[in-house]
Amino acid sequence: MTKLTINLGDKATIKSSDIILLFNALRSAGYSVIGPTIREGTIVYEELTSIDDLPVGWTDEQEGGSYRLKKRSDNAFFGYNVGPHSWKKFLFPPSLRLWNARKNGNNFQILPENNDTPKFAFIGVRACELHAMAVQDKVFMNGTYIDPVYKSRREHAFIVAVNCGQAGNTCFCTSMKTGPKVTSGYDLSLTEIIQDEIHYFLVEVGSEIGAEILNQIPHESAENKDIESADRIVEETAKNMGRTLDTNNLKELLYNNYDNPRWDDVANRCLSCSNCTMVCPTCFCTTVEDVTDLKGENSERWRKWDSCFTVDFSYIHGGSIRSTVRSRYRQWLTHKLATWIDQFGSSGCVGCGRCITWCPVAIDLTEEVSIIRLSNNNSESLSSDKSDFREKHNH
Amino acid sequence: MSQKRKPKLAVWKFASCDGCQLSLLDCEDELLAIAGEIEIANFPEASRAVIKGPYDVSLVEGSITTPHDAERIHQVRRSSKFLITIGACATAGGIQALRNFKDVKEFISVVYAVPEYIETLNKSTPISDHVSVDFELRGCPINKLQLVEVLSAFLNARKPNIPPYSVCIECKRRATVCVMVAHGTPCLGPVTQAGCGAICPSYNRGCYGCFGPKETPNTSSLGDHWNKLSVDNDGIIRAFRGFNAYADAFRKESEIREK
Q1: I need a surface site. Which of A215, A340, A358, B217 has the fewest CB within 10 A?
Q2: Chain B environment of A38 (Cβ under 8 Å)
Q3: Is there a domain that residue A245 lies in?
Q4: Total domain count for chain A?
Q5: Residue B220: what pLDDT?
Q6: Which value does ipTM take for this structure?
Q7: CATH code reported for the domain at B8-155
Q8: What is the pLDDT of residues B205-221, one digit of tens each?
């Protein structure tokens, strides 16, 4: 039996130059290592061929409808915020063949699908993203019908989480209570510490398998000063959120505002292009397309990412029930922030800010909600003024 | 069991460049399968042999630009059980619909030595302005995979999977980074129908709108955003006046910005 020097729940430090050993350990354990890398002027998640693929020394500047890379003044490995991709593209593939079938006389025969599960190691998963995975876990694994593809990919995935060392302009995880500190759902979590000339990682061990991997890498026990430094970094990040969302009575607020005029205003700007739902790490809707070959002898069923912003999404016999963009935006926002709670027991929003950054016309859900809240409060005070008025005049 | 009769297919050309009908010849691997399932009865680009109608399915390319064609399309409709228009010319009037915004008589007088010889209509119009159309396949040119899909659906009596949503969905499914958000490149993707596979953004170019307006296109909001990306209204008019200039949503947006 191998004697483990580090155990679940322990904290250690590793040198920044040894991050390559973590990478190598994961690869030799048979994982395909997925992590951040620069492509098309952004930091995306892709399979990494070497540690050199990491976006060392780069960061991003984000605003509604805008994302730009920028050089950092240091050599941070993880000095950026979440980008255009989320991990869902690996766990919940954008296009997936569910089965194919062959015509057999007047019947048909379903051919088994090759279900080899890729073994992913995700490097650089943020707290909001772990919460997003937990949300999708509820959707795909905890109900009556379990998605076998998602489940096997998810269960085999090794997660190296990273505590955020900075907050982006469109981040609001503190409002959603999903970050910036990673609290659970990881195998290893890293906090990147760059002080003066010293560059190292505080590592927390979240699972047995995480301990096994860390034991293959030179590490030292973390001292109090290391833990304090890491805590300070996350506290500082929490103070710098670019956005906030007041979640107080949010569900009731949205349920009481189906006819708020703000929905018309946002519908004038909304492109119904579906970008917000595609980049959202929790959005899980799909459509199913059946295709046949020309002879009609082979047929395939494909599952593809879909969006509540399309007309066909709500098509039932006779037509689409959400023909207006107003009704589609309202459906998306109300589902994400309100009905999701009734359906799954938590909000569907993790405060990552992707829907704000990647909306081509910069629609910001935190702004929409705060304006709806403001007009709701005004109309409530207006209606209470009216009732005061009535009371006075009834006497 | 008797051998099932193969459906007869005809390909018709109106005002167009032939690019879309050549997509049928460009089907390569699928072409033999198509020829195996369909009798190509009238397709002058492929064969001089013409089998008389009526036809089970007609693919119509091109727009209506002459009085003669305005008559001919009715004959095509009469001889076709199922009529599918292919490409931006047939579905929206094509690039030649730029004439619709100007005085054609003036063009003719400037371009031709003997203007009297030219018999043309004031407007280039889509086929659906003249006859009823069973299915419109968009694109400049059409995507050959979509053409095969439409023919497969027709042969198997099912609905074709030709979604009317935005190009953005195709970009996101293939993990292409948004060129407008990440680079500030003006892109028509959010108002354009999917179908090409989001080719241009994957080469870091904005979408040119080849597949015409998507369902519920919000051209005014996108145009306002282009203004913020330093594209003036002349630039926006030029963008909307491409291959689908006369498609309703694109036409209206360009006309509003001309005022």
Answers
A1: A215
A2: none
A3: no
A4: 2
A5: 98
A6: 0.94
A7: 3.40.50.700
A8: 999 999 999 999 999 99
